[in-house]
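COURSE: Structural Biology Practicum
ASSIGNMENT: Worksheet 4, Part C
STUDENT ID: 0417
INSTRUCTIONS: Below are two proteins. For each, the amino acid sequence is given first, followed by its C-alpha cell string. Answer the questions at the end about the second protein only.

PROTEIN I
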Amino acid sequence: MDIVLWIVSILVALVFVAAGVNHATRRDTPRPGMEWMLAVPTPLLTTIGILEILGGVGLILPRITGVAPWLTPLAASCLAVLMILAAVFHLRRRETQNAIVNGTTAVILLVLTVALVPVVAG
C-alpha cells in the first residue's frame, strides 16, 4: 500500500507543480480550455500558482525527508480545498469539463489525505 501512496503522491505532485508554474508565470494567450486564466486578476493567478507549487512540494518533501511528515496529508487536504474552490469557480462560468477535472482531483486528494494520516502518524 505504501508504494501505491508514493506513486499517487508523486504523480499528483508533478501535476500540481507543473500547473502551478503555468499559473504563476504564464501571461500570454492561454491554450484552449484555459481561457479562465484571463478572467482571474494576475496577482490572484500568481498566488494560485504558488499555492499549487507549494502543495505539490508538500506532498513529497516532508514525507521523504522525515521532517514534519504530518505536513503531507495537510498539503493534500489544502490542495483538495483549492480544487473544490476551483470547481465552484468553473461551475459559475459554466465550464463543466474544468469543474469535473477539479472535482475529481479533489476526491483523489481527499482519499490521499485519509490514506496518509495513519501512515505519517504511525
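PROTEIN II
(use this one for the questions)
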Amino acid sequence: MRLLVAPWFFRLPGLRRYHGYAFRRTILVRAPNPSEDLLTHELCHIWQSQRRPVRSFWTWFTSTYEESPLEAEARAAVSRTR
C-alpha cells in the first residue's frame, strides 16, 4: 500500500470536496499529515476493493456517495477506531 500526497488530484472536477481517495493499492491525500480518521476511512476502502473487487466497482458505479454501503462501512470503521 502506498500513501501519496497529491494536491493536484483534488483540483480535478468532481474531486474537489474530497480529502482522500483510495485506489486498489494507493491512497492519495490532499495535504501532508492526514488525520488518523482519514487514513482509517481510506484503508477501509483499500480493504473493500481487495476483498470484493467486483462489488466495490459495481457499488461505486451504481450508487451515490451519500447512499453507498461502502461509504457507510468506512464511516463506521472510523467511529469504531476513535
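ANSWER KEY EXCERPT:
Q1: The two ends are 22 Å apart (CA to CA).
Q2: Helices lie at 36-51, 53-62, 69-81.
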